[in-house]
Amino acid sequence: MDRSGRDAGGSDRFGPDDDRRLRRAVVTGGAGFVGSHLCDRLREEGASVVCVDNLLTGSVDNLAARADDPGFVLDRSDVSEEFDVEGPVDLVLHLASPASPHDYARHPIETLRAGAHGTLNALELARRKGARFLLASTSEVYGDPLVHPQVESYWGNVNPVGPRSQYDEAKRFAEALTTAYRTALGVDTVIVRLFNTYGPRMRPTDGRAVPTFITQALAGRPLTVAGDGAQTRSICYVDDTVSGILAAAASGHRGPVNIGNPVELSVLELAEHIRELCSSSSPVEFVERPGDDPTLRRPDIGLARTAFGWQPVVDFDKGLAMTIDWFARLAPGGP
């Protein structure tokens, strides 16, 4: 292993040559927001896909483009229970987990099981199949960071018994387990830490800032900004996040590596910008800030740039406009 985290020799796992072509992938959590976009991209690039999702927070509506697709299979197994996939598998991408604060507050045990048992079962599948394994971890492993921007070498500042601990610690354990399978059992793994992602197929009621502000602005309701809105976020359009995930999977890199957009803005600035793009007159209403809500979020993506040439390319306003258009179509009386 070289200092960048790439396997000695620097070769990528997948490529255009026939003997390195990605033929079949398993995506856990593939009916979710990011997972469904990932399934679509894999199919567009010619890989057959098995989506494993018990639909706890995912939806078959997100997979509408895959209806009657012979190269796509939906398996409604719970990844927290042992599962198997018949036939060869080249790549296992483990995304299964409640991912919004509202979801993991409602499903704390399921969140911990997805991070622990689910990761173990997905790793076991990759081990049996001799497949590359990608863990979709999160910027939440950094907690409320004391280092800014966040670099992969930072160990984080996490409350292990706080209101967000079920998600934060599940992902931290998943990273440790993935590392153990790599070092002890030789499984070919990579860890990506996803920062805030937005785009079509987010649920209007999932509690995250972008869908909340868009649905409120389109309905003319007050935009509910937590605290004074000074806390910052960096949001990445889903197409860019998917490109980063697949670039990491195709590379020989082990991670962890940040995948996110380094453009940083306050939550209040985000609310006001969405209001402007929606041509809304909604007022801002300041509400109580949730416990352990991170004060700062901005990824350092230098490693992703140098290791496998990834960086976000979708313009911020264009990404928000596409997302707003999608939500407008969901609204009663929408186009």
Automatic annotation (TrEMBL):
Q: Which Gene3D superfamilies match?
A: NAD(P)-binding Rossmann-like Domain, UDP-galactose 4-epimerase, domain 1
Q: Which InterPro entries match?
A: Epimerase_deHydtase, NAD(P)-bd_dom_sf, UXS-like
Q: What Pfam families does its record include?
A: Epimerase
Q: Which key words are in the record? A: Decarboxylase, Lyase, NAD
Cofactor(s) listed in the protein's UniProt record: NAD(+)
Establish whether keyword Translocase is in the entry: no
Ranges where the NAD-dependent epimerase/dehydratase domain occurs: 26-260
* Name by which UniProt lists this protein: NAD-dependent epimerase/dehydratase family protein
